[in-house]
From TrEMBL:
The keyword Repeat applies. This is Nephrocystin 3-like N-terminal domain-containing protein. InterPro entries: NPHP3-like_N, P-loop_NTPase. It comes from the Eukaryota. Coiled coil: none annotated. It holds the Pfam family NPHP3_N. Keywords: Repeat. Residues 36-185 form the Nephrocystin 3-like N-terminal domain. The keyword Repeat applies.
């Protein structure tokens, strides 16, 4: 989210995606009253899932809601497997829940090779068990959000499914308030576990479709982007005051078919 490699990674453009962002934040803030502790944000490639995920992280940090996250990315060797997931999550969890330090660090010190063990074992000993211990001591009651963006960009499909099942088993069997946010394309092998008995009732499937009026958001983004070009480009003063026309903007909106990635490339 905030590493050097991702400093320019986009979040939602101001005043766009407000409906879906508000829905997700309401779900996070009111989690104690809900039965659905897993959110699956699904949509086509380029629909803006990652931008929404990054905006949710930013909103949680602003509101001091503990959140740990991992953004998969298909072409980045450091982010296209599950190998670094636990180390990344643990680092972030310790930052937002310092009380876990005295529980987790001795585990790592006593078994330095624990990060080479199975994903399930790492989750159990470095995330789930410490959270249960802290909860049993009544030292911490605030909800923790675990966010996984681009799940379908993890190279191994079996690992994608394992991640869903491992996390579902934890939120389904513990009283500790943990919420899990997945974002991915609606691939069949991902849909199957989310729809399976024992998991489906815990999942809120949120489809990023035209229900959230992407055309309006794309239009706003384009207008702001073209205005920025006119105001900042060295030759902006040579552009006509009416550039671009409403019809030209609308043409781009129509061609985008609700895909933010299209207009991002167009604006650049």
């Amino acid at each position: 989210f905030d590493s050097a490699q991702h400093v320019d990674a986009p979040k939602c453009h101001p005043h766009t995606r407000t409906a879906v962002l508000n829905e997700i934040m309401d779900w996070i803030m009111l989690a104690v009253t809900r039965l659905q502790w897993i959110l699956w944000l699904k949509g086509a490639a380029g629909a803006g899932k990652s931008a929404i995920g990054r905006s949710i992280v930013e909103l949680c940090l602003q509101r001091e809601i503990p959140i740990a996250r991992f953004f998969f990315f298909r072409t980045d060797p450091s982010r296209n497997t599950v190998a670094p997931v636990i180390a990344t999550l643990v680092h972030q969890i310790l930052q937002c829940i310092p009380a876990l330090t005295e529980i987790i660090l001795p585990i790592i010190q006593s078994d330095p090779l624990i990060f080479n063990k199975s994903l399930e074992t790492q989750f159990e000993y470095l995330v789930f068990k410490p959270l249960r211990q802290l909860h049993n001591r009544s030292l911490y009651q605030q909800t923790l959000v675990l966010l996984f963006d681009g799940l379908d960009e993890c190279h191994n499909e079996m690992d994608q499914v394992s991640l869903i099942r491992i996390l579902s088993s934890f939120v389904g069997t513990t009283a500790y308030p943990v919420m899990v946010f997945f974002a991915s394309r609606a691939e069949n092998h991902i849909s199957v576990p989310f729809k399976s008995p024992g998991i489906s009732q815990m999942v809120w499937p949120l489809n990023l479709d035209h229900h959230y009026s992407p055309d309006d958001d794309i239009r706003l983004f384009l207008v702001d982007s073209f205005l920025a070009i006119k105001n900042t480009h060295p030759f902006g003063h040579l552009l006509d005051n009416n550039w671009p026309s409403e019809s030209e903007v609308e043409e781009v909106v129509i061609k985008s078919s609700g895909q933010f990635v299209y207009v991002l490339n167009d604006a650049q």
